[in-house]
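Consider the tokenized backbone below.
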């Protein structure tokens, strides 16, 4: 098994899936990413809160879109002046465009993080797999921390505030347990 990394900043051995965040100036367990939206790192104990944040933000923008669509009717505008009606219409269209952009970005982040949660990965592991030393022994498509969809969801949403001591299994054991993964395998990767 690959050795655990040593953090020179914190002067300690890092558990698997941990990374030192230079912005937070500390090691984060099950490091996902440093998020400027929440002003800190997304890690093992707050990944569910980050997913909930994305879910409710996306839902909020859909509600704003629905309200914006129902709230504008060019025929019932108070002013009969065509310039006033055009101004209201252009402001409404700008607002609607901005909402669609927000729905797209938060919705795509929600879909991506849902995929990561279901597959037992983090953003760091998924995007930087080739530079993480302990993941190099695994072929593409083998996710060493995958515990099945239900197991992965339990690890994220039902952890009761307790960190896990992640262990690595041999690649052949994981391959037999996981079988063929349609999204990531030795032939191609969807992401």
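A designed sequence for it:
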């Amino acid at each position: 098994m690959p050795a655990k990394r040593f953090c020179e900043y914190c002067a300690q051995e890092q558990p698997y899936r941990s990374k030192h965040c230079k912005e937070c100036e500390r090691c984060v367990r099950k490091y996902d990413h440093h998020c400027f939206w929440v002003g800190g790192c997304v890690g093992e104990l707050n990944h569910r809160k980050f997913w909930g944040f994305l879910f409710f933000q996306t839902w909020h923008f859909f509600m704003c879109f629905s309200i914006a669509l129902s709230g504008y009717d060019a025929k019932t505008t108070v002013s009969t002046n065509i310039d006033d009606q055009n101004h209201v219409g252009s402001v409404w269209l700008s607002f609607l465009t901005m909402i669609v952009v927000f729905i797209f970005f938060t919705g795509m982040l929600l879909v991506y993080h849902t995929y990561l949660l279901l597959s037992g990965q983090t953003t760091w592991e998924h995007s930087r797999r080739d530079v993480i030393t302990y993941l190099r022994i695994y072929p593409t498509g083998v996710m060493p921390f995958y515990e099945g969809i239900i197991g992965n969801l339990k690890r994220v949403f039902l952890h009761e505030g307790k960190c896990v001591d992640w262990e690595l299994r041999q690649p052949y054991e994981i391959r037999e347990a996981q079988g063929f993964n349609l999204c990531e395998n030795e032939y191609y990767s969807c992401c």
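Helices lie at 47-70, 82-119, 123-127, 148-157, 171-178.
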